[in-house]
Description:
Layout lengths: L17 E4 L4 H12 L4 E5 L4 H8 L3 E4 L12 E4 L8 H9 L3 E3 H9 L3 E6 L4 H14 L5 E8 L4 E4 L5 E5 L14 E4 L7 H4 L2 H13 L4 E5 L3 H9 L5 E5 L6 E7 L3 E8 L2 E10 L1 H16 L4 H8 L10 E6 L2 E6 L4 H12 L7 E5 L4 H18 L2 E4 L16 H4 L8 E3 L3 H11 L5 E5 L8 H12 L1
Parallel strand pairs: 1-2, 1-4, 2-3, 4-5, 6-9, 6-10, 7-9, 10-11, 11-12, 12-13, 17-21, 18-19, 18-21, 19-20
Antiparallel strand pairs: 7-8, 13-14, 14-15, 16-17
Helix pairs in contact: 1-4, 5-9, 5-10, 7-8, 9-10, 11-12, 14-15
Enzyme class: ligase
InterPro entries: Mur-like_cat_sf, Mur_ligase_C, Mur_ligase_C_dom_sf, Mur_ligase_cen, Mur_ligase_N, MurCDEF_pg_biosynth, UDP-N-AcMur_Ala_ligase_MurC
Keywords: ATP-binding, Cell cycle, Cell division, Cell shape, Cell wall biogenesis/degradation, Cytoplasm, Ligase, Nucleotide-binding, Peptidoglycan synthesis
Amino acid sequence: MTIKPDPSTEIPAELGNVHFVGIGGSGMSGIARLVLGDGHRVTGSDVRDSANVQALRELGAEIAIGHDAANLPDDVDTVVVTGALWQDNPEYRLALERGVPVLHRSQALAALIGGRRLVSVAGAHGKTTSTGMIVTGLLALGARPNFVNGGVIEGLGVSAAAGDGELFVVEADESDGSFLLYDTSVALITNVDPDHLDHYGSREAFEQAFVDFADRARELVVISSDDAGALRVTERLSHANIVSFGEAEGATVRVHSIETDGPVAFALSYQGAEYRARLRVPGRHNAINAAGAFAVLVGLGFDPQLALDGIAGFAGTGRRFELHGTVGGVSVYDDYAHHPTEVAAALAAARTVVGEGRIIAVHQPHTYSRTQAFAKEFAEVLERYADETVVLDVYGAREDPVPGVTGALVSERFDDAERVAFIADWQEAADHTAQIARDGDFVITLGCGDVYRIVPQLLASLERQRG
């Protein structure tokens, strides 16, 4: 059983010395960065070293690798945990035994937000990019928001930073219901594609959480006009101020004239006026994300054209179609996509810029429950959008293994078995990928587990094969 947020937990008035268990994660590291910036002593632990861990150490955090009760300082005042931890974690158990306040990361973030004007970005996918677009736009408009994102914002080099104004922008996590803990002023819902059903139990319960999230927003709800789940949520809302965005004819902010040849260009229709932009990132889905960010910024009171111009400066986020190197004419990218809709969007975006080359997907299924539920859908989108696919084994994350659930569940559902290979061994997978790659191809790793760690092996195999 993993650690779930407990809404009844009392948040201390002063956090004091703070220990983060699982400090290296994208969300946890961002919160730790803000806590350090507030002058607190920060300690922590993680299962492995990483760029996030190194960056926090440079800011003064004391971080141990590996989870051990000995990592918990004697003078700790508050412990912050991530929902990815099991309840038998030794540092978590010792904190409970000592009576030290233990906060889920969402509760620690709520403490940092305080009474600021909060923009919460939620949705099954698109959150990190949309949050990055909003932050980039606000900075271009002269605002200096506080923010915590789920990925590093290119151009800023960080996933979180303290600002000097009333605005606070966060990527709000729906996976365990923790987005309901925030006192949100402006809610952006990118989509309500069914996910995390291991927590919610049913699509209806998943969608009800979004209804509750939106109706609690103090000022404004911005929600997709195109996504079926978002439309069902919209029908159930009682909020007085709802703005829709997307390609649908009736959208308040309507996207049209989308050009996907290279970095995406598009037009927006809003309140009888037309606005145009070309982004620095590819993909039709990013035109839609930009429309949602635009709706948020104009909803906050900013000039429409200036807001869109600011968003157009967004250069992407870490682990979202991120180029890691090119060897012998083969480019290796990494993307966080771990749901069929996300995989389709990432590969469709790659298709617009790969030219005459092919797309080779290296897919790591994430969690046994999601793999079991969506194996057919993953196979369909991979076969449709990639020319070749290598499927790795399942990254279990917070879940125990399920007998019979492996990456083969995905590969076996391909119609054309010649275009897919299930290879559990990473070195074999890297070597196979290098052998089938040709000049001009894109290799794209896909998944929100640790699949990014295979990238050096892919580059090395390509160097041996083609260097």
